[in-house]
Amino acid sequence: MSYENLTPPAGDKVSIENGELVVPDQPVIPFIEGDGTG
User: Partner of 5 at 20 to 30 A CA spacing, among 19, 20, 27, 30?
Assistant: First the structure.
């Protein structure tokens, strides 16, 4: 299975500034689905 042409959706990164979590209005949240055996 190849994902060469995969383009992530538009949005902003979630970050940490001054020890606090900064979540933008349109965050990009990665989701990796596995088979659950690992």
Answer: 27
